[in-house]
Design brief:
361 residues, Jelly Rolls, 2 domains, 8-stranded antiparallel β-sheet, 7-stranded antiparallel β-sheet, 3 helices
Amino acid sequence: MALSKLRSASFEDTAIHGNRNLIINGAMQVAQRGTVTGVTNGYGGPDRAKYIKNGAAIVTLSQDTDVPSGQGFTSSMKFDVTTADSSIAAGEYALIQHFIEAQNLQHLKYGTTDAVKCTIQFWVKSPKTGTHIFEVVHDDAAYYNAHQYTISTANTWQKVEITFDGYQPTAINNDNGIGLQINWWLAAGSTFSGGTYNENTWHNTVANRAVGQVNAVDSTSNNFYLTGIQLEVGEQATPFEHRSYADELSSCQRYFQRWKGATQGRALGQGMMYGTNLALGMFNYKKTMRTTPTASVTAANTIIAYYVGAVLTANDTAPFDNMGDSTARFNLATTSSTTNGRGLHFFITNSTDSLDLDAEL
């Protein structure tokens, strides 16, 4: 019995448990939007990573197969600079962001003396050698915690591990807003880099946010890659938690859902005619979203109302009303008419079109 207890304790002390990673899609498996060109501020490529900038730098965001060897990764996020910014003015910047929902961070105990340390690990491939900035932002407190890491060889995969302290003065709100911002700086003007670098220090001085940051967007030859991002409680980076594609897709769909068309049509729901020129029906999302999403379609007439033998062309630029976080009602004014009460099916007919639901942080 004593031996059995010893074995049990040893296993519990050394086992690495699941659901450690606070980052969604850290292995860049899910890319619902596909490749997006001409990005100035927004998403593209793998889900949950956003590019923002103030300045000239424009990028193409895509999912790529360039990955560090032997780590079990199949995808990375590629930031391809298509319009360079070789001279960064004082107020200009370019960075990559990942937002973590506040109610998923309550176990970090921010706002108490027990606020915990966390460790992030990631693989990065940068076009520039020298100092780069990784930053954590406590959104509710508007405080920053910056860390320098050094790229020793350009265009070569490198693993980075950083531990940062918890923030004791202010709690993270227990809501569905932004809890922490995770930032990778690509370029920073003097407004953000002209101060003093203090390792692992929470501060609210904007000039101290990106001290020493190289300009990684100064040429259209520049490509910046990320994969293998894991954020976990504690002062030690544990082996990367590889999750199934299905699990990551489900997590991503809390924030964004794309309903694609198909050659033979993609059914969205059922409904009926209300009067002779208004098509109504129920639409169920793939899963409950973070909040009521914004709906958009790629082109006019993306969504059609169909009944046996006929298609009703509809004004679908704003296809829903009574939207919630899990359902909405089709409300399409049709340009052709049919019988009041006639049963309908709603479709995306064109394989190149899609319906997007956006509830990103």
